[in-house]
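Worked Example 4.2. Consider the chain below.
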Amino acid sequence: MLEFRLLAAIFFIFVIVNVTVGGGFQVNLQGTKQLGMGHCGTSLIMGSESMFFNPGAFAMSDRSSFVLSANFVIPHINYLAPYPSTYTASANKSVSTPFTISAAVKPDSVRWIAGVSVYTPFGSGISYEDNWLGQFVLREMSLQAIFYQPTVGFKINNKIGIGAGYVYGSGEFYLRKGVPLQNTDGEYGEAVLQGSGQGHGFNVGVFYNPFQNLNIGISYRSKVAVNVKEGTAAFDVVPYLADSFPDNTFSTKLTLPSVFNLGASYNVSEKFKMALDLNYVGWKVYDTLSFDFAQNSEILDDINSPRMYKNSYIIRLGGQYELKPNIHLRAGAYFDKSPVLDDYITPETPDSDKLGLTVGGSLRAKRLQVDLALLYITGKKRTAINKETQFGGTWKATAFVPSISLGYLF
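Applying the procedure from the previous section yields the following structure tokens:
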């Protein structure tokens, strides 16, 4: 049945869009200092937080540290039905809290440094009123994930650092949607999908200081295959259709894209530096969605649905100014090119090209450091119809993301 195919397809899309760095309302919040500079970090030496951005830059860190950061994602999504309808809707207000914990150990008189970073590359949710126009596409979605990355860096000399990290990801999801079948009280049915999965990958990078004021960084985060072995699907439908919608389990393999990062930073003066990052995301690997259900019926079949994503990129620019030796001010911006074609736009991530603007700052008191940042994201207004569900309209999305981190230097 088309409705159930759509249900599974939406789950798949949501996991992909929000687990990686590219497309959708992505959660690129792995360092408050970097966030203040437009989330640049490939060529910046910023302690244990550099493990995510470039293990090679992490290798150049000169001391042990511990950093805990919290972010508060406050999205606002508006929907307008296709002309001539004047129907409008908004996603329910929500706040999600991605976090990062990073710790590094740097023994004296050695060239290596080791650490571990624990972060949530996604962890947001979205919901609409149960009776909204798109309820048969989506009512509610939530997704929580934690990635663990132990990392080792080696400082070859004062100009070159290399590093590598192993990535283990674990996540849970929950999806709820209406089913267009009414009971005797006029209430629509409902379907719920939930499950968990794990995946493995790696993160490698090189840092190079060719000249006194210029730093260059290159890093590569591999694709990650997330295996969901026993997700569950439960249905609340009219009794005479219960046999056609059996409570079920399913398995699938979700391949998350690789990300290639290239960055450069330059010390314009003794107190002011600029940074430029380019992230290239290999979204093209998502051309088909496949789900294998343990039980099939005449209505419920296994799913193989085309998705046809395209590769995308993000351009980032940031600056940092040293107001005083213990006070730094930051600002930045980025442009995020959407990987989603018009035919595949969906309510849970009404994706479009996005512009992000950031500000931030740091205050250090002896060994303790406090970092603050604020990100504003605005997506381009986009009108499209999903060719599989035939649901669409005009979408406009924005988000505010305050960020705070506490760090201790040993």
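Residues 346 and 401 are 22 Å apart (CA to CA). The two ends are 59 Å apart (CA to CA). Compare this with Example 4.1 before moving on.
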